[in-house]
Specification:
This protein has helices at residues 3-9, 23-33, 53-75, 87-94, 97-103, 148-160, 175-182; strands at residues 45-49, 118-125, 164-168, 188-197. It starts with a helix and ends in a 38-residue tail after the last strand. It contains seven helices and four strands, in the order H-H-E-H-H-H-E-H-E-H-E. It has a domain at 3-52 and 106-213: NADH Oxidase (3-Layer(aba) Sandwich), CATH 3.40.109.10. With 235 residues, it is an alpha+beta fold. The structure holds flavin mononucleotide (FMN). Residues 11-12, 14, 166-170, 206-207 line the site of flavin mononucleotide (FMN).
Amino acid sequence: MELLTALTTTGAFREFTSDAVADADLERVLDIARFAPSGGNRQGWRVIVVKDPAIRRGLRDLYLDGWYQYLAQRAAGLTPWSPTADRAVEAAAIEHAPDIAEAASPDDFSERLHEVPVLLALVVDLGELAAVDRDLNRYSFVGAASVYPFAWNLLLAARELDLGGVLTTMATRRETDANALLGVPADHALAGLIALGHPVRTFSRLTRAEVSSFTTIDGFGGPAFGAGSAVPSTL
Ligand SMILES: Cc1cc2nc3c(=O)[nH]c(=O)nc-3n(C[C@H](O)[C@H](O)[C@H](O)COP(=O)(O)O)c2cc1C
């Protein structure tokens, strides 16, 4: 597959056919994903292929907890769990999560997470993260950059085999319980759950903001950089 096509059409796929994904195909995807970058090339990612129906269902339940809270915050016009959020406003929004849970459709991706063809738990060894911003007096995020490129590589690699999927993070709201289910050691964190399968819909060009909307020259408040997209709209 052409790189430009893969980069501009690899969206989040949450609906899959009933076709199984062979272990050999999954191994090939992981074999390509492992070439992702990480700080100091520490490669702190660990992957658990979750096949056991009871563990899958348990993870789905934990995921749903965060998912309904996410929807409640979205309904209140918030960016869910933003590090800069007003916690009182956020808590008030989350109080409506049970109402959202009650109205949820049993056919949604979240409700059927345990049924996806491939369910991966992405775990990271905290001892392998070069979290350069760890000691700053603000939310630390550099460590995450040593694991999520692996997830993205994995989703791009999946394209090579006509597979699609999505990285999800809702279950990390219940990380302690999720890690207990999976036997993850205390010095490791749950970075997310990844669903993979044969997508029902086709790949098409994604919707993203233009370069000039997020790029400036010589300073944050400088003039916009970028005159318009050169990526063909036919992709
Ligand atoms: C860090 C991260 C966390 C995400 N968590 C979830 C999630 O918990 N559940 C979900 O359905 N999608 C999740 N997504 C997928 C995003 O919703 C998706 O990438 C975004 O909406 C863009 O979708 P598109 O590529 O199809 O345009 C996550 C994506 C990222 C990068």
